Amino acid sequence: MLLALGLRLWGIGFGLPYRYWTEEYKVLNYALRMGSGDLNPHFFEYPTLYLYFTLVVCGLHYIAGRALGWYHSSHDFAVSFVRDPSRLYLLARIMETLWSLALVFLTYRVAKRFFGRRAGLWSALFAAVLPHFVAISHVIKGDTAAAFFCLLALWAGLEITEGGRLKHYLICGLSLGLACTIKYYAAPMLLIGPTAHWLWLNKEGRGSWKSFFLSRKLWPAAAMIPLVFFMGSPYALLDWPAFWNDVRNIRSPWKTASEHIVWKDYFLVFRSWIEIAGVPRNGAPWLGPFCLGAIAWHRRERTKHLALWLLPIAVYTAITLPTPMVWGYMLPIFPIFLILAGGFLENVAVSNQTIRRLVLGLAGALAAGCLAKSLLLDYGLSLKDSRTVAKEWIEVHIPAGSKILMGNYPYSPPLLQTYKQLKSLHQKAIEIKSYKEQYLKLQIEAHPGTGHGYELYTIGIPPIMVGALVHMAKEAQQMQNLVPYDQGLDYLRQSGIQYVITNRSDEENAKFVKNAALVSFYEQLRRDAKLLNAVTPDSRWAVGPAIFIFQL
After folding, report:
1. DSSP of 8-76, one letter per residue?
2. Would you list the domain boundaries of the chain?
3. Per-residue pLDDT tens for 82-98?
4. What is the pTM of this model?
């Protein structure tokens, strides 16, 4: 556990005081906005339990801050957050780390319960050093909390198959409800309950549909799932039209992206298996094949209740194959891989001595490889972000007040807008009744004043390319000074634009979705504009894209 803690704390302050992860920005900002008294998030891209959890954590921090003299009022607290959000970001990231540690511990307990103590230790070791688990533990998203409750539901399901006790039915229902009200992608785990119930009935010789549906244990547990979900996300019911509109449109960016996917992109789903990772950067080389080999061994040995172990793996794979862009949603199945690998190692320990040494040696080497990769990821997080480096260079070499066209958050440098431009945007927010009105007001109050910042404009890419819900992207773009990218550089010069800042992530995205006009714009910049500086990450492990600063 100490090893897991150390890996999750190193680099936990990455990027601060700037905010480079849209997920973190959404979770914290929406949570704090609810602190005004309106508990309706007006945002259902995520369920809301983790937002409420974050709100409570921030509220406790505020109470402590008042007692320590850090804040004199709730308004002072809000302005302090806008000026420098580091305290709250660190606190929320620590909460994510604690959930991750709980997941490591639960992985140990489940493996120990069904395969033995040695299996628990191996599984916990893999979970502690797995690069993907280490990486997501640094980011405020609620993923580790959702994975924890998914695994707790699986444990309860396995206990149901063992003894059919009502307690485990209720724990299973409670855990599934909590997982789903933290992250929607936990929904496929709902199959755990009825499957475990069916296996228990068959074990007892009562495997009929009548026995299945007339059970006095299944339905109380099933009723807990929607009850807990709506308790954690009450406005999913109270503001049903908005909830349904967001949920219905969540897959629209992925659907559009899928139109541009070629056959090789489907390998990403299987790469998630091979490297036990939701994104390629966090992959653990060769650990996946080892786990798959362990699963094959379990199948040959007819491990007890293997069908229940493998059900989530099969379902999540089937769901992600049609849309490979969502391979990151496979997180709930990764602890299962690690536990089955631990169970395999438990049994290998009592086999032939030569085979035992070879297999345990291989497992140790894989764990060491995971540890090395996690250390490199942490090292990358500890380096200064390329967007921060670019910001510092711009503030030295480009005069304040200059007109700058740049890409969308979060891949661009976090430049400060001029006081005048913020005032103008705030007035516009009042006129159109934008949800950003209060936030802009706080930004104005936190602003150092005239003579600071730049007049910023944003490349007007289609809302579908922003990656969020389309209607939310449109709302956000209402509060941006958008400039068309298909009118040529002369149009930009005539509009008064002096500098253009692009980044490699946006350029690659334009190519991925085959936006020919946007690709042509980036090419024209490189050909006809003056490149002042190209800021690249200090290391392949460093966070942040390459930033290109042009003068027109």
Report:
1. HHTTTTTTTTS---HHHHHHHHHHHHGGGS----S--SS-SHHHHHHHHHHHHHHHHHHHHTS-SSHHH
2. 22-84, 115-136+251-382, 386-415+454-551
3. 899 999 999 999 999 99
4. 0.91
